[in-house]
Predict the structure.
Amino acid sequence: MRNPPGGSTRQGRRRTGDGAIPAAPNTYLLLVPDPLIARDLAETVTEFDPGARILPAHNAAEAGARIAREAQVAVAFLWLSPEAARPLVPPLAVRGARVVLFGPEADEHRAAWRGEHLPTPFSTPMVLHLLRRLAPR
């Protein structure tokens, strides 16, 4: 049975007036132990992508649990060293995430990481530039 325009789909998303199913919002994992930095980063992400779903995490264990519940992650910002981030990279890759390391540990061990890096201290324009390159639109 077809859903009428504006009706629900099996996935729980509503069709638009033209019958198309809107894209699911992008999901961003923010593993940041400092609440002020986490808030600033979340505000920058939502400035870039107003419909973004933000998954906050304060440590790697919490991030791992959040990742396990997601089908897709667009970008993961990890305040970790490359070594500490390694266990999180495979499950993030399976979910299509672009992984960005940042923070003092990431800066100090930058040579050990071949992926994306956000140097600290960072600014809103730096994060927006990175998101323009990495996030799906």
In short: The chain has one domain: 27-134. The longest strand covers residues 27-31. Confidence is low (pLDDT under 50) at residues 1-16.
